[in-house]
Structures are given as structure tokens and as C-alpha cells.
């Protein structure tokens, strides 16, 4: 999608205040919903993804499964709200070994697990709005010992509210960023489409994903065909099992 696009600075793939925030995305909804709402904390539009099972309600990009994003910018930034429920997202990249590698990040894991094609890692979000900064070059090098080439696909699962998802060639300071890309929204700014006429005041947090010090490596047999990004049935079984264990512990 973006292979032939000049990539420098910022490249946004989702903006909740845009006229078509999911123009590049498609969705899968089962026992949940995806809608645009006005968040009371920031007095601005946000895309809300909610569901009883994180594995069955999600958005994915590109919408066409045969296409790839082709984004070479090494930093992924997500402005997201912690809904105090289970949440996960995943991103698939291409490395210099011409292999597709996947990173899955969730708030219901406690250990980082590295496998030949997939790495699962935990994330701790502060209450309210967060800015997640994901250094794709660093994580690819740490997990697989290879070099990041480009981002292939991305999925965001329930439960969360999203303001913007974008890539950048480096981490920028607040003074260098356009107003709509900032985590701390300015007191006087241009209103976005369909936005309520209320001056936004928000105290937001910044979350930089850091892998656990002790990485648990699991060796799996190498396979000739790489697993698809979605893997619907496998994801459902794994995440449902995790949720049942957590619920059982809470009841006890």
C-alpha cells in the first residue's frame, strides 16, 4: 500500500476524527461492537472497540488480506485509552531474512515468550489515555537477531478506545509534532469533524513497551509455510483459555 510512497516524518493509518477513520481497515465483530464515540475525558471523537472476547472483535489493516502495508518507518505510536479490560494488538513485520515475524502485545500476559515466528509480550497501561511507543527495529533485533525491513500488517483487538495510530522515522518532542499528533491536546486547537464544541483538557500518560528482563524462549519446529496473521481459531482457543483462568482466579 505504501511501498511507493515517500516515507519520512509521520505516516498516519488511523485518525478517529477523520471523515473515514477506517478507510484502510476492515473489521471482524462477534459479541461486541466497533463505533465512534465522543470521549468525555478529551471531549473528542475516539474509535471504541469492545467485545466479550478479545479474539473475536478486532480491526485489521490492510483490509485486503492479499495486500501489505509496506511501511518502512521504524516507530509505531498508538494513542489509546485504557478501558480496564482485556486488550491486545499485534503487528507483523518483514525482516532482512525475508521472514514474516509477529509481535503480539496484551495486558493479560506476564511473561515475554519468543518463538521462531511470533513473540508475545505484556504491556502495562496507566489509567486513562496512553501513548504507546513501539521501536520495531529494536524489538526485531532483540527477539530474532535480524533487522527490521518493513511493517506488513496490523490488528487491534478489543477492548480500547483509539485516537490515532501512526508511524514515525524517529521519536519527536512535543514541540516538533503537529497538534493532532500530540498526546497532550492543546487548550486551543482546531476542532475535528463532528466534534463537540468544548475545550479539551486532559492529563495523559506515556507507555513505552519494554520486554521483561527474563525472556522465556520456546523452541518450536520450523515449518515451511508461515502462519497467517489472523489465525482465527487458534487465537480464540488461546485467549479464551487465558480469560477462563483469570476469571477462575478472581472467583476464588
Distance linking N and C termini: 49 Å
The helix fraction, in percent, is 10-25%
Radius of gyration: 18 Å
- The ordered H/E elements are EEEEEEEEEEEHEEEEH
CATH fold assignment of the domain at 10-181: Jelly Rolls
Give the biggest beta sheet: 8 strands, mixed
Reported CATH architecture of the domain at 10-181: Sandwich
Kindly report the average pLDDT value.
Answer: 80
Global morphology: globular
Structure summary, number of beta strands: 15
Q: Class by helix and strand content?
A: mainly beta
**Parts with pLDDT < 50 across at least 5 consecutive residues:** 186-191, 193-204, 210-234
Q: Total number of helical segments?
A: 2
- Report the portion of residues in β strands: 35-45%
Q: Just give the CATH class of the domain at 10-181.
A: Mainly Beta
Amino acid at each position: 500500500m505504501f511501498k511507493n510512497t515517500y516515507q519520512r516524518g509521520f505516516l498516519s493509518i488511523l485518525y478517529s476524527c477523520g471523515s473515514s477513520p477506517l478507510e484502510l481497515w476492515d473489521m471482524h465483530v462477534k459479541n461486541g461492537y466497533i463505533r465512534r464515540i465522543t470521549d468525555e475525558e478529551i471531549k473528542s471523537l475516539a474509535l471504541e472497540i469492545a467485545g466479550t472476547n478479545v479474539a473475536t472483535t478486532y480491526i485489521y489493516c490492510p483490509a485486503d488480506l492479499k495486500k501489505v502495508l509496506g511501511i518502512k518507518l521504524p516507530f509505531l505510536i498508538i494513542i489509546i485509552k485504557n478501558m480496564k479490560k482485556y486488550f491486545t494488538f499485534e503487528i507483523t513485520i518483514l525482516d532482512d531474512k525475508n521472514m514474516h515475524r509477529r509481535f503480539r502485545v496484551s495486558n493479560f500476559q506476564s511473561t515475554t515468550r519468543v518463538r521462531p515466528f511470533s513473540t508475545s509480550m505484556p504491556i502495562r497501561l496507566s489509567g486513562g489515555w496512553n501513548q504507546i511507543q513501539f521501536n520495531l527495529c529494536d524489538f526485531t533485533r532483540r527477539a530474532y537477531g535480524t533487522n527490521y525491513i518493513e511493517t506488513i500488517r496490523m490488528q487491534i483487538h478489543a477492548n480500547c478506545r483509539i485516537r490515532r495510530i501512526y508511524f514515525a522515522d524517529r521519536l519527536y518532542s512535543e514541540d516538533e509534532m503537529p497538534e493532532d499528533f500530540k498526546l497532550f491536546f492543546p487548550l486551543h486547537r482546531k476542532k475535528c469533524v463532528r466534534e463537540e464544541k468544548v475545550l479539551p483538557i486532559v492529563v495523559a500518560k506515556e507507555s513505552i513497551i519494554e520486554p521483561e528482563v527474563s525472556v522465556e524462549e520456546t523452541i518450536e519446529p520450523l515449518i515451511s509455510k508461515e502462519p497467517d496473521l489472523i489465525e482465527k481459531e487458534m487465537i480464540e482457543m488461546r485467549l479464551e483459555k487465558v480469560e477462563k483462568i483469570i476469571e477462575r482466579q478472581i472467583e476464588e
